[in-house]
Design a protein that fits this description.
The complex is a heterodimer of chains A (158) and B (296). In chain A, 32% of the residues lie in helices and 16% in strands. Chain A has 158 residues and is α+β, with helices and mostly antiparallel strands. In chain A, β3 and β4 form a beta hairpin. The radius of gyration of chain A is 15 Å and the shape is globular. Chain B has 296 residues and is an alpha+beta fold. Chain B has three domains: 47 residues, Uridine Diphospho-n-acetylenolpyruvylglucosamine Reductase, domain 2; 116 residues, 2-Layer Sandwich (Uridine Diphospho-n-acetylenolpyruvylglucosamine Reductase, domain 3), CATH 3.30.465.10; 117 residues, CO dehydrogenase flavoprotein, C-terminal domain (Enolase-like, domain 1). Chain B is 35% helix and 25% strand. Chain B contains eleven helices and 14 strands. In chain B, the strands form four sheets. A five-stranded antiparallel β-sheet of chain B has the order 4-5-10-6-7. Chain B has a four-stranded antiparallel β-sheet with strand order 11-12-13-14. Chain B is globular, with a radius of gyration of 19 Å. The termini of chain B are far apart. Classes of the chains: A alpha+beta (158), B alpha+beta (296). The interface between A and B is medium-sized, with 31 and 31 residues.
Chain lengths: 158, 296
């Protein structure tokens, strides 16, 4: 039986009826057409479905949609603001941190939560933050560089 | 892969959750973090028709410290434990276990209760919990009982918790002054890694003589359940801590285990590592004692 939940997705209120067996990932991709969040291993090992729930990164493939009732969700689609791309997204472009791009949304979500929590994360802390996100193209070096450079560049309100 | 269909139930209290699992019996499964249950359901290893969700039960989501007694609710997330100063300052080996578990996103979902009841021989929290002498409080309706963490496991995926019982919280006593503990985890990589072996050691010294008066050595992924290395513990009792003694204890611990060959490592490699890492973790425990003495 479907359950109606009310939540905020990328700062917009949303009311939606979901089946208990739908995960947050199923809901985002299949019900709302928000395909920025990727489906990889579908069992919490690859991190490409990472989204923020109440500012914390979680694997959307292991989170039942019904649990999102009353929560604030942030996905990669919500990173861009009226002023354009998020500084992290810009840094990913500048540093060549994107190759095939499949891991990128998860990498961005895992690192945005780090930047929100820590003023000046060290390289080690950046590696820790993305330790649950697999990338098979870049060898991670450019991704770590991008996150570190974004933290250095960010302005006051970031 | 999509999850199989089920009915979803959200009890508002632990008592109501107990009633529900009584009512649904074999068709029910308890949901905490979902990092294990949902994967097994996607793989069609489990097909519960009724899911009773414990995730929103505030009464089992708290870490509370009263005097020398700490209680950790079964639905505390692994992150909550890793980030807790109350846990880090008194139970550093447990903090270390939590920090090494899975990935940040998995730690934000997974719970301490789930890590225990799943009963994986390689689980990261049970060794430290058992080393600190933790007791699990199990609720069944109005009744409750306590089980010691080193006696809770029956085999891979199996515990002595009955079908109609719910793990409510974990109870730890603040260790005495001259005591210390450490945790180790050996894996092929640092994140999202099922341990090749893991374990925790706890030693307490007699403040007068400086000799070991209590020792607990708990090893994981070396047998179907957690192993208490009792011959190694016996060897330590009444002795002064030191390099030679810890080496011998490491060797004795190997005899207490029954490791297997699997994808992650051979039995022979595991035996070698039990020796090295037990001895090393005893040193960690001793260093903890020295640090705590230096602080006072």
């Amino acid at each position: 039986m479907k359950k109606t939940i009310q939540l905020s997705i990328n700062r917009q209120p949303c009311t939606i009826a979901v089946e208990p067996h739908q995960t947050l990932l199923d809901m985002l991709r299949d019900e709302l057409g928000m395909t920025g969040t990727k489906r990889g291993c579908d069992k919490g090992d690859c991190g490409t479905c990472t989204v923020l729930v109440n500012n914390k990164p979680i694997n959307a493939c292991l989170y039942l949609a019904v649990r999102a009732d009353g929560k604030e969700i942030l996905t990669v689609e919500g990173m861009e603001t009226d002023e354009g791309l998020h500084p992290l997204q810009k840094a990913f472009l500048e540093k060549g941190a994107v190759q095939c791009g499949f891991c990128t949304p998860g990498m961005l979500m895992a690192s945005v939560s780090l930047l929100d929590g820590k003023k000046n994360p060290t390289e080690e802390e950046v590696k820790q933050a993305i330790s649950g996100n697999l990338c098979r193209c870049t060898g991670y070096t450019h991704i770590v560089e991008a996150v570190v450079s974004a933290t250095k560049k960010r302005g006051e309100k970031f | 892969m999509a999850l199989p269909r089920f009915q979803y139930h959200e009890p508002t209290s632990l008592a109501e959750a107990c009633q529900m699992i009584q009512e649904y019996g074999e068709t029910a499964a308890l949901l905490a973090g979902g990092t294990d249950l949902l994967v097994k359901m996607k793989n069609r290893e489990l097909r519960p028709q009724n899911i009773v969700s414990l995730v929103e039960l505030e009464e089992i989501k708290q870490i509370s410290v009263t005097g020398r007694h700490t209680s950790i609710g079964a639905c505390c997330t692994i992150s909550q434990i890793a980030d807790s100063e109350a846990i880090r300052s008194v139970f550093p080996a447990l903090s270390s276990g939590a920090e090494h578990l899975g990935s940040p996103a998995v730690r934000n979902l997974g719970t301490i209760g789930g890590n225990v009841v799943t009963a994986s021989p390689a689980a990261d929290l049970p060794p430290a919990l058992a080393a600190y002498g933790t007791k699990a409080r199990l609720k069944q309706g109005e009744q409750e009982r306590f089980l010691s963490l080193d006696q809770i496991f029956r085999g891979p995926g199996a515990t002595h918790i009955r079908k109609d019982e719910i793990l409510a919280d974990l109870h730890l006593k603040k260790p005495p002054k001259c005591s210390g503990a450490g945790f180790f985890k050996l894996g092929h990589r640092n994140a999202l890694q099922c341990s090749i072996i893991n374990g925790a050691c706890y030693i307490a010294l007699d403040p007068q003589t400086g000799k070991i008066e209590k020792a607990r050595i708990i090893l994981g992924a070396v047998a179907p359940t957690l192993v208490r290395a009792s011959s190694a513990e016996k060897l330590l009792m009444g002795e002064k801590p030191g390099k030679e003694l810890f080496l011998e204890a490491g060797m004795a611990a190997v005899g207490d285990c029954n490791p297997i060959d699997d994808l992650r490592g051979s039995a022979e490699y595991r035996r070698d590592m039990i020796q090295v890492l037990t001895s090393r973790t005893l040193h960690t425990s001793l260093n903890e004692i020295r640090k705590s003495i230096a602080r006072t």
